[in-house]
Amino acid sequence: MNFWFDANKYSSIFTKNAIKKPELGKHWLASWRDIEGLVHHDILYKAETNNQAEYGSMLMVLHHIRSWTDYMEHEDDHNIWLEEAIIYGDSQLVINQMTGKYKVKEEDLKNLWIEGISLVHVLKADFGIDVKFRWVKRDINNEALGLKGKIKDPGPE
């Protein structure tokens, strides 16, 4: 099953709301697609940088998958519904750190990375879900999240 994540400033997605509530406009927003294909936009109050926000968005996906395992344990098929989760994002840093291609050097990202890796291990060890990470171009990611045309492409990270 495919999942998508991204992070943007609140004001770049919800311009009119940001004008009405300027205190929201400065926050980072996690955009992610859930197991049913619905797109969510959640404010990341603790994120101060783009990379923290990208990690926060990716963690929303992992926590969502983990929460579904609790629900499915009570069903008859015991998580047969999800043997593989492929998580797509346009942050090369997050994807490459989660796959082990890059080391995590930034202190402010280490706890986020540890949380992500821990969730990946729990999903595999306890529920048999193989989590994989794939990088995609920003325009493909925006389209998957229904953001195409809503934000300006700021260029590579």
Write up what this structure looks like:
It is a single chain. The chain is an alpha/beta fold and 157 residues long. It has helices at residues 10-13, 15-20, 22-25, 50-73, 92-98, 107-127, 138-144; strands at residues 2-9, 28-33, 39-44, 84-89, 130-135. 46% of the residues lie in helices and 20% in strands. The protein has a five-stranded mixed β-sheet with strand order 3-2-1-4-5, with helices on both faces. A hairpin with a 5-residue loop joins strand 2 (28-33) and strand 3 (39-44). The radius of gyration is 16 Å and the shape is globular. It starts with a strand and ends in a 13-residue tail after the last helix.
CATH class: Alpha Beta
Helix content bin: 40-55%
CATH superfamily: Ribonuclease H-like superfamily/Ribonuclease H
> Are there runs of 5+ residues with pLDDT below 50, and where?
152-157
- The CATH architecture name reads 2-Layer Sandwich
Radius of gyration: 16 Å
Main sheet attributes: strand count, strand direction, barrel closure: 5 strands, mixed
Spatial strand arrangement across the major sheet: 3-2-1-4-5
Q: What is the element string, with H for helices and E for strands?
A: EHHHEEHEHHEH
